UniProtKB/TrEMBL annotation:
Keywords for this protein: Glycosidase, Hydrolase
Keyword Transcription regulation: no
Database matches in Gene3D superfamilies: Ribonucleoside hydrolase-like
Biological process per Gene Ontology, one example term: purine nucleoside catabolic process
Example GO molecular function: uridine nucleosidase activity
All copies of domain Inosine/uridine-preferring nucleoside hydrolase, residue ranges: 4-301
GO cellular component terms, A-Z: cytosol
Keyword Hydrolase: yes
Name of the protein in question: Nucleoside hydrolase
Source species of the chain: Szabonella alba
Pfam families: IU_nuc_hydro
Length: 314
């Protein structure tokens, strides 16, 4: 299996992404979860990461706590989407498993130095603070990363936190700039893709029909998460953003995209955190990312439901 580290700010959609990865041990070996501040403050995201691991039956999963604020800015959170805990919806148990001692950034650096070069993929599902801090502190790890597959940015679909920017990139644009300029092989799942992966009623009913605790939790999470997009945009359901990252690793044929240049706006207040994506190749700037544009949503949800049925692990 391919070795991955999931860097995350759970978040109901982060939770589903983590469950999908843990349900796919033949293809993916999750070396650890690194929590970062984003949707909610760090003390909640690291707690949520443990709750999700326990729900999946992965009680030995290494979970590390990381950066509690962006590199240079004040933290912006998204309780208006995810609720006060970040995982609002179902009643959740207190986690019993402990955090691993040490900082997430040290775990990232040590793991990348220890594992054979080119064998560890990073999957950031939140602001890029932990990843950028690791790259700044240990520039030698850049060439050791196999790939970064991240949820962030937007092109045609533009913003969900400002008119120009997607949340993960907006929260820590300086960190995003470091990652996009790192020379590491990048795959980017922007809002253009995730807004096609909507949790419609039949899709959520299918989670519930699994008849398991995981199925029920995922259904209740997505029910809660939906109200934001339904109320605000009249959308048919909520975009299941972060699971698309894991889905791309499992079934890349469900997606299509283009290798293009993507730069991050860090100067302008008006368009802060915008992913300036050269989709039409109108500049001679070298491509630095595979920027996805489309997904087969039916296929995605069918496979997601099939995988979630395998949880909890025994
Ligand atoms: C991203 O922001 C968060 O609210 C979600 O978890 C996702 O990672 C979507 O913009
Ligand atoms: Ca997230």
């Amino acid at each position: 299996p391919r070795k991955i580290i999931i860097d995350t700010d759970p978040g109901q959609d982060d939770a589903v992404a983590i469950l999908l990865a843990l349900a796919s041990p033949d293809e993916l070996e999750v070396l650890g979860l690194t929590a970062v501040a984003g949707n909610v403050p760090l003390r909640l995201t690291e707690r949520n990461a443990r709750i999700i691991s326990e729900l999946a039956g992965a009680v030995d999963m290494p979970v590390y706590s990381g950066c509690d604020a962006p590199l240079r800015r004040k933290l912006v959170t998204a309780e208006h989407v995810h609720g006060k805990t970040g995982l609002d919806g179902p009643q959740l148990p207190e986690p019993t498993m402990a955090l691993r001692p040490g900082h997430a950034v040290d775990f990232l650096i040590e793991t990348l130095r220890r594992e054979p070069s080119g064998t560890v993929t990073l999957c950031p599902l939140g602001p890029l603070t932990n990843i950028a801090t690791a790259l700044q502190r240990a520039p030698d790890i850049a060439e050791r990363v196999q790939q970064i597959v991240l949820m962030g940015g937007a092109y045609f679909e533009v913003g969900n936190i400002t008119p120009a920017a997607e949340f993960n990139i907006f929260v820590d644009p300086e960190a995003a700039k470091i990652v996009f300029g790192s020379g590491i092989d990048l795959v980017v799942v922007p809002l253009d893709v995730t807004h096609k992966a909507l949790t419609t009623k039949p899709r959520v009913d299918a989670f519930r029909a699994l008849g398991t605790e995981v199925g029920r939790m995922v259904a209740e999470w997505t029910d809660f998460f939906e109200r934001f997009d339904k109320d605000k945009y009249g959308s048919a359901g909520a975009p299941l953003h972060d699971p698309c990252v894991i889905a791309w690793l499992l079934w890349p044929d469900l997606f299509s995209g283009r290798r293009i240049n993507v730069e991050i706006e860090t100067g302008s207040d008006l368009t802060l955190g915008m992913t300036v994506a050269d989709w039409w190749h109108v500049t001679d700037r070298a491509p630095n990312a595979l920027f996805l544009g489309d997904v087969d949503a039916e296929g995605l949800f069918a496979l997601l439901t099939e995988r979630l049925a395998r949880l909890p692990l025994r």
